[in-house]
């Protein structure tokens, strides 16, 4: 069965800026759909959703059909409705994968999942980035041929990156201008997994880079739902699994 | 300099239930203040705050004077104002320690810091709990004499406990009725640290137990502010630290 | 392509004890081969190796054909040649998966990979074990229907279990006699992954249990080689990737 | 009570190379002793030990009086006796702190504690290093004023650094020549803690740098013994803590 991916894009820059529109004529959601089709073939089935659709295109029905949600946002994070953020968070905790790309570090959903500000240093200077593999055992690094790969012109993101220590740290970036950054991170939350991948941009052609495409596809595959099948919601279990010595009375009136 | 601790208590049960009032005549905030004074002496200076005070007693001025905030809530989590939760979260990210006790697993602030539901199984059957040390190198276990300590009558909390994998897992509980639980966990978030400790109750005299008192005091000491002094807020760094080859033009109009 | 698994067994108890021989007539390596065939079908191809073979059956040629090595030992850990331990460690760091079963906690290879004593409490009292899932997002828990599964009669292993904090903690066991144990752990080392799974025994029929069989097969699948392709051995890189300002002389005589 | 630190130095380069002798006239052990005295004052009491002493100066008696052992080695790792490595490992598991400095990444004791090759890329080109704080909540970063500090001329160490994911990752280095490195790492092993800190060199005056001195002193303080007091050695516990239903017979003959 193919992985059902919903590709979310705020889809703002493509409509307001000529350079972005020229680079990504089908929108950033379009280039993501293309790369997943290229990399994963019949193993993936994509659907797109954007900010301006009702419920941002993320209705319960759409999420019922979603194994992995990818997220691109940059200029309009604050226009995302909190009720939709609640809904996506719930789905991730129930097992849906989430891939947050580049400037999605500042999205409401990423901040919600992590509990920190997710803020960082940044600079637009078209500088070189070299992405080093620090966990070569990780399936998300599958196919990377060397200790590193390079991107010639990027926006810099630098430490301190205010995130919890990742459960799995896969890539660390070197920047020409002097910074470092934890660029590839997995966070396990509830029954779901979140993959953050730094590279990406609206005017540098990052999403045409072969290594970036490979890593993002690996990430989609990695965060697809897996694991135990139980529900895991909190609940009272009045009947113990094992006998309990009856030597103490409990005032149940306190705990209805 | 003493650690300045603000002890927060929703202070509801003590005023509505006779058994609780009798067990903790000074309120749960009172017993926490007593235990910290007993354990830490002149190294600590405590202040209390409760739900019904203006801003729940957690004004900017109070937090300015707070190194560590301890949290007890049970019956009234939803009455805590979201604006105060925002404020406390910000303070933790800036370095204030947070100790969440027992039923504070379901508090808004704990859920906010962790990004998960923090839900669990529970049972009121006055059963035995045995708390095992799984990280004997940890300062929070300082002074525990044996591989475990016991509490004769407790409310059970059981897995699956919906939290991120703790950065530091110190205790795992065994319950007579058949469950296990990750009972002592540290989470590092921003410049702050959060300690969750399961034992505690409003009618079982858990907070008079010597080991529990010791661990909570260790926890307060452990999460006090420490570390680097920089601010760490996200910001643009237009001037690179190192020279960048000028071979690519950046359209700054996109990034004001 | 199938996963090529080498199933290693010290194969001592089966030849010296009638009860063990009766329970596992094909040896413990036999029951492991059967369970992997049952669970993974054409996705797996197994080979067995035992202590008494030359080089314990773990020649370079055999390891060249091994994606995952499973390890059972109990009575004869100290008869394993250190040179073979060196060899297996090297292979794991280069990407070979390793699954250590039950009493393999005290094997030389497990101690070598972890750097700790790997010691624990134990008891033979045929007690009940209940294995709780604490990471339901983990592929190794795939297919577990409930928050826990049970084994009616087991040897107890209890904390403190002297291992590094696992990179991924999946299961925690509850024991009837009062202990808890971190029963399912993944450790990433070099380009390889190590899965430790506690359940197992030479006289209790643990390896016929459906959940145990499922988890071990999941573990074999999980630790198969994956990730980046580079070699990763230490080496001098005299030519920098980026230009370095020449303002300081280096005395190379010190660093041949 | 002061922290009792034993400063170990292979003490080879200082005796064979004029530049090293001139930079560190009292040996590298001397500069470490000086910096700890400067930073920790009466809170520390130091002792030194070197390779050529009997038992490398690390007798049981010396280790009985040691809270923290610091390790410098570079040219003579293989001359360290395996029996002494066994002894030091045992002490760390029992609670002694260990600080491994710079080229001690390739020491037998570091490799032993971690179970990996600990290999890395390196280059002697006197390049600039910028050390970024990635965990500002960590006591080892105490007193660092900025997001980073710099060293003008260093030997480069680069990823992939073959270590297990650190339990606590505090610093990541940027190098002028294009690499990154996990430069400050804590590993908890048994009841002990190991701090690895990359900066250091025998001909660059790294150990006179104020930030380096501060961090090393913080590290010594951080890894001093703490935590639970139990012994934690593996052992049989024939008497259960809780009653076990007697419905199954155990053949004890297998388990003497």
Main-sheet strand order of chain A equals 2-1-3-4-9-8-7-5-6
CATH topology of the domain at 3-117 and 182-229 in chain A: Rossmann fold
What gyration radius of chain A follows from the Cα positions, in whole Å? Answer: 20 Å
DSSP strand count of chain A? 10
The structure class of chain A reads: alpha/beta
Helix content of chain A: 10-25%
> Could you tell me the mean pLDDT of chain A?
94
Specify the CATH architecture of the domain at 3-117 and 182-229 in chain A.
Answer: 3-Layer(aba) Sandwich
Output the number of helix runs of chain A: 7
End-to-end C-alpha gap of chain A? 44 Å
Oligomer: homotetramer
Query: What is the CATH class designation of the domain at 3-117 and 182-229 in chain A?
Result: Alpha Beta
Can you describe this structure?
Four copies of one chain form a homotetramer. With 256 residues, chain A is α/β, with parallel strands linked by helices. Chain A has a domain of 163 residues: Rossmann fold (3-Layer(aba) Sandwich), CATH 3.40.50. Chain A has a nine-stranded mixed beta sheet with strand order 2-1-3-4-9-8-7-5-6, with helices on both faces. In chain A, a hairpin with a 2-residue loop joins strand 8 and strand 9. In chain A, helix 3 crosses helix 7 and helix 5 packs across helix 6. Chain A is globular and about 70 Å long. The relative contact order of chain A is 0.16. The mean pLDDT of chain A is 94. Chains A and B meet through helix 6, strand 5, strand 6, strand 8 and strand 10 of A and helix 6, strand 5, strand 6, strand 8 and strand 10 of B.
């Amino acid at each position: 069965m193919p992985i059902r991916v919903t590709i979310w894009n705020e889809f703002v820059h493509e409509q307001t800026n000529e350079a972005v529109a020229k680079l990504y004529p089908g929108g950033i959601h379009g280039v993501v759909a293309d790369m997943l089709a290229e990399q994963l073939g019949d193993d993936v089935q994509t659907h797109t959703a954007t900010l301006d659709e009702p419920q941002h295109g993320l209705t319960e029905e759409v999420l019922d059909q979603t194994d992995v949600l990818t997220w691109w946002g940059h200029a309009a994070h604050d226009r995302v409705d909190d009720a939709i953020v609640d809904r996506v968070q719930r789905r991730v905790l129930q097992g849906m994968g989430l891939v947050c790309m580049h400037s999605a570090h500042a999205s409401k959903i990423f901040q919600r999942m992590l509990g920190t500000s997710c803020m960082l240093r940044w600079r637009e200077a078209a500088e070189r980035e070299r992405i080093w593999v620090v966990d070569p055992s990780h399936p998300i690094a599958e196919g990377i041929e060397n200790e590193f790969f390079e991107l010639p012109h990027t926006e810099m993101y630098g430490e301190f990156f205010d995130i919890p220590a990742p459960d799995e740290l896969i890539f660390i970036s070197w920047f020409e201008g002097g910074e470092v950054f934890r660029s590839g991170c997995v966070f396990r939350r509830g029954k779901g997994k979140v993959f953050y991948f730094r590279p990406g941009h609206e005017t540098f052609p990052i999403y045409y880079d072969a290594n970036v495409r490979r890593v993002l596809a690996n990430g989609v595959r990695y965060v697809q739902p897996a694991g135990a099948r139980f529900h895991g919601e909190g609940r009272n279990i009045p009947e113990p699994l094992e006998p309990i010595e009856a030597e103490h009375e409990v005032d149940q009136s306190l705990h209805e």
